[in-house]
Amino acid sequence: MLFTLSAAIFALNLAIAAILCLGAGLLLAGRFTSLPKRYGTLSAGLIGSLIAPLAVAVGTWLSLGQLPTMNVASSSPSTDTVRTSNELGVAEDTQVKPLKVAESTSPINDTQHVVSSPPLATPMSAELPPAKLPQPVIEANPTQPITPEDTGSTTTASSPLSWIPLASAGLISCWLLGSVVMLCRYLLSTWRCCAFLRSCREVEDEAVQTLLADQCLQLNISKDVRLLESDSLPAPLVVAWPRPTIVLPTDINIELTSSQLRSVVAHELAHIKRRDHWTIVAQSASAMLYWWNPLVHWTAARMNALREMICDDIATSLTLRDQQQVKPSDYAASLLMMAERAVQYQQLAGSLGISLSSYSEMERRIRRILTERTRPVELRINKRFLAGLTALSLLLAVGLAFAQVPAEKPPADEPKAVADGAADKKEEQDEGESKEKEAKPKKTSKIEGIVIDQDDQPVSGAIVHMVSARFGQDEQVTTDAKGRYEAEMEISLGYRRIYATSPDGKQMGLYKPPGVVKEGEPETAKIRLEPIKTAQVKVVDSEGQPIEQAQIALQLGYPSMVGPATTNSEGIATVAFPESEPIQSAIAWKDHVGFDYKLYSLPYDQSGDQLTKKPEFPLDGIEQLQLTGVKPLTVHITDDKDTPLSDVSTHVWLLKKEQESEQLNFAYYIDMFTRDTDESGDVTFHWFPKWQKGITTVWPNAEGFVRTRGMYDPATQDGTLDIQLDRLIALRGKVTFPDGKPAEGIYVSANGAGYDYDNFRGSGKTDAKGRYEIMAAPNQIYLLYISGKEWSAAPQSGFVVLPGKEVPEHDFVLAPSTRVHGQVLNKATGEPVPGKLIYMTSHGISLNDLEEDLLPNPENSTRWVSPMRQYNMNSGEEGEFEFYVGEGDYNLFLSGHDAEKFTLKGEKEKHVDLKIEVQMKTKLIGEVIDDQSGETIGGAQVNAASRNFRQHNDWQAKTNRDGKFEVERLPEPTYLYVTDGLRMKGAIEEIQGDDTDVQVRLKQLGSATGQLMTEDGSQPAAGVKLHFGFTVYDVNDQMSSNRFGEVITTDKEGRFDMSMLVPGRDYVCTLFDNPGGYVLTVAKANVEPGQQLDLGQVKTPETPKPYVPPTLAERTQSAFEVQGTPLERLASGTKNIAIQNQNLLIVLAQPTDPRVETLMKIRYEDEDFNSYRDDFRFMAIPTDEPRIEAAQKLADKLELGSVNASNEFRLVILNRQGEVAGTITAEQVCEGDQLSKSRLLAALDPYRTKTVDARQLLDEALAQAARENKKVLVQETATWCGPCLRLSRLLLENPQWKKDYVWVKMDHRWTGAIDIMKEMRGEASGGVPWFAILDAEGNKLATSNMPESGDNIGFPSSDEGRQHFKNMLKATSTRMTDAEIDSLAGDVEAK
Length: 1391
Hints:
Elements: H1 2-29, H2 35-61, E1 80-85, E2 91-96, E3 112-117, E4 120-125, H3 148-151, H4 163-199, E5 201-202, H5 206-218, E6 226-230, E7 237-239, E8 245-249, H6 252-255, H7 258-273, H8 276-289, H9 294-317, H10 328-351, H11 359-371, H12 383-401, H13 416-438, E9 444-452, E10 463-468, E11 474-478, E12 484-490, E13 496-501, E14 507-511, E15 523-528, E16 530-540, E17 551-555, E18 561-566, E19 572-578, E20 585-590, E21 594-599, E22 623-626, E23 633-639, E24 649-652, E25 654-655, E26 664-665, H14 670-673, E27 675-676, E28 682-685, E29 696-701, E30 710-712, E31 720-725, E32 729-736, E33 747-753, E34 761-765, E35 771-776, E36 780-786, E37 791-801, E38 812-813, E39 815-816, E40 818-826, E41 837-843, E42 868-874, E43 880-885, E44 888-894, E45 900-904, E46 909-911, E47 914-916, E48 922-930, E49 941-946, E50 955-958, E51 964-969, E52 974-979, E53 985-991, E54 997-1004, E55 1006-1013, E56 1025-1033, E57 1040-1049, E58 1055-1061, E59 1067-1071, E60 1081-1085, E61 1092-1099, H15 1112-1120, H16 1126-1140, E62 1143-1149, H17 1154-1165, H18 1170-1173, ...
Parallel strand pairs: 6-8, 9-15, 16-22, 23-31, 32-38, 40-46, 40-47, 48-54, 55-61, 62-63, 68-69
Antiparallel strand pairs: 1-2, 3-4, 5-6, 7-8, 9-12, 10-11, 10-13, 13-14, 14-16, 16-19, 17-18, 17-20, 20-21, 23-28, 24-27, 24-29, 25-26, 29-30, 32-35, 33-34, 33-36, 36-37, 37-39, 40-43, 41-42, 41-44, 44-45, 48-51, 49-50, 49-52, 52-53, 53-54, 55-58, 56-57, 56-59, 59-60, 62-64, 64-65, 66-67, 68-70, ...
Helix pairs in contact: 1-2, 1-4, 1-12, 2-8, 2-9, 2-12, 4-8, 5-7, 7-9, 7-10, 8-9, 10-11, 15-17, 25-26
């Protein structure tokens, strides 16, 4: 009986363990979208169930199973301490002898003994359970002996529990018998299968054998696979033991096409490669052991289906040599044929021990192949994934055996009261900590307002809702008799959605907040109620079936929304909203099911479309949204020490479906989708849709940490995103008035900039002591400033904030603000231009201006890092604007127009007018037709890319049913990219600014595929982002942008696909978002209509090495190793100094001389030498042994005497005429063996170029031009400017210009030259050289700025520059011939 009881308990534990293992596998498998991972999860559940017998046996043996093991009482004498009560009712411990148990006829021996102390009686078990369960309290009379008679312990065979052993024995026997039957069936099936294989014959068709060999090679199957055929087989099968074997029906190569046969063989080989026979063995073993458990059969059926679908995916995605992938329709046709054969051979297959797929399963497979786009899959489950699941199943099985180990009771020598007291003390401590946490002051803002009706009368009893960004935080207040309400809201809860409803629920009103609410500042919310309208949304799944308990919401006019509402059993939900509000978007979602949205507005770029109507919500019907599946996103958030952060508010920002032209902005629905991380720092968005293909942004928000965005790419990240948050660093200081008193209530702003995507923006308000605090993000360079209508302060910049490092305080002294005001005017008419967005910016010190780069730059970015403050406003009805700011350098501009630059130094006012060129829009009418049929195409999408890169003037349109489109656009050169509704045909056309109509003919689109390899070409480059597109150049053909393409990612084999390519157009594929900012070309493609171009293997282009400034030693070496002999260099140098009005400084020395190192250090790094660089052109001549002869020839030429090879150090000065002006010896510039900077500069001073008065120079040139009836050619130049030297050399070598012009050079060294050029250039952009042609009175006739773009041509080296140069001369010359002008411009090209 004891054995029977123990076996029953073991069987019960085993059954529970198996059910939990298999159930866990089925449950977890549903969470994955990847078929191999589903399959692996189910396999792990099977493994756990097979391990369970061993684990449960160990647990039962240790008496630690899920149920307490029941053993008979020990016969050895012992004493137990029991809790008794004395006559006074006081509890005390009493030693009680073991109870004497009478002979029992009950097979389970669970006799109950009663120890009584009148008038109460408490039942007690014959023995204590082996597990440490809580001891029962026994009340006994210590003076009365306990006898068997007192207990009433005698039991008889008529006990109601006597049937349990018999039932247990019967159930165990039935279990074992069923397992034996299943084993026999398995052995019989195996024997029949082996007999069937012996009846098969080898396939003799060499083509089929070759096909098998090629596919084994491609799938990397090293084992020898035998190929047999049989007349009695309905469909192919594979047997993996003892030798991998594929059996095909006879003549299947005749019934199937070569493509179909290839896919069928690939399907069977995939089974071998994946080692599916081992999981089949596990299925069979589990079915034998748990034949009674439906979970086993459900798991096996699901694994069978998944196994076939995985191999279907492999078969349809596999390519062979130069062949294309199998068409899904062909493969589905082969399966259908196999299904038809199965009907005829079903009985025969069963007799051979072969099981065929059910008809419903076959139908499901065929539908899936035809309707779903399968992708290449892994041939086997990821080893790490399977190992993790196996370990999990092992822990589950073993853990189940120990799952109910009770807690340790207090030690025997510790009274219960002490233990209880300790627990109470712990609870009090936790409660105190909780209260202390809750008692921390929270920053709040007061909200007060009034609810009124349409007649402006207050509404009493209205319910006001204040919903925070945290889900479920809905605070409600009721208006008083005057319709007023007030509430305190935590600022930490972020954005609030405020709305009100009337007492009867028939009216509703929304409040649209003005912006960010600051601490302590009251917000007045006036809400006007109006009648409500209702909207209905139906939510369905991918098969059109209604979804119950889904959530819907509507976005109304900015920034309001309503919802959520829950769908009923028909999938319909109804939402009420104010009747005047437009519906901008509708959304629906449900965890583990999906998400969908629709937008009811045209894209911004389509605002000029005259024929397309804005989509509208069907208020008179029911809108339908479809949830098509999820790919859950889990976000893991940690601090800078990788410690998980809990309670971090997190939300997704933007999503976009492929069929939608615009993204959905979750900022409107933030309070519905914000979730907090758990204690592990994780938050999972179970509704995240599987249709999301592009990169999306996730925003975390944690108090005390930087708000750092996370970028999630579904193409490369498998449902997980890690975000690390840095701690904020305090910026502090004090603000005082000019009289030194503390300034209270002043806002100090901090703007940062770094190499990360987001720059910090924040502010802090001064307290009564004038102190402020701003919690700022680290790893950025900062700009601090104060700007207000009354008071401002000079900005402070040039300091970086680093993690964990304290920042010195920055104090401010206030000064009256400067009012910057003016008008936006039409440059042509002078009329004011209203409604224009004006920007006013000011930059702080850039990172490049610091001595070293103090910020981390992990991606070696080359971006310019500088903090910036920006103000903006729209011009008024009269074009007016005004800003109040402090001291600093400012840029005032409109986007796409030149900026007005000025400096403020405490002025009370500054008047600046912005004159802009106002373009009037023109109408473009277009027609889209099919190039082959000539028929018009309705619903075609037109995307336009303007060639004016200074402004964003792109636009979109759609054709109507007649294939027509009509838009209002700016008259600019533009490229049109047009595709039909199915995006199967397309074209790219260029139109000019004055075009008013266009006809676009669409051709069949093509594609190009390739395989990206690593830089050395050794292996595929997987997971690399690429961008392909058509290159659009700006109007000046100087800048370009790849348009009309997309971002793609290479797969695991490095393959990429450039789809929807317009025939006859050149496409370029580049690396996407190169950290160094380089545009690196991967491939180019130009396709014919409908062509699928194979680019083959292409190597990843090598990233250019970042520029590293040369060291002083490298500069020194380069100076001494200039190409040419010393005499040749002398000839070139003397020409240049004559043009540039400089002196030539010749250094005769050995390159390794320490005095040379000091000289070069002064030349390149000393600020005191800056002004000397403009006057002296260096020429270093080496005098070491190998080159002493060449140096001596130079010395002879200049009559310098002999050159000492061992210790030569001499400086020779040549004036601009090429004559030796002086010689400086080592004794003159050295103190001992060391070169002295002061002595060097003193020795050079006598030879410096004498400065010239620029104004006098210009006046003399104008006077000469007046006398000779000529024009003045003014050239702005600098000695360091190479193009300036080239332009001067061009004019000196081609003197024909002298017929019409007096040439004057405004060298930056000349006194007043820079000021003169600023005045003369005005708004003209560009660097130097810049030149202008003046008449004799000083009026500008032409400049080097091109009329259309305003760009400075500098030295006219480009075709456009040379043409502009010729136009300048032809427009202003009177004596030069066209041939002379062409000759001069032609020599430019030669230069």
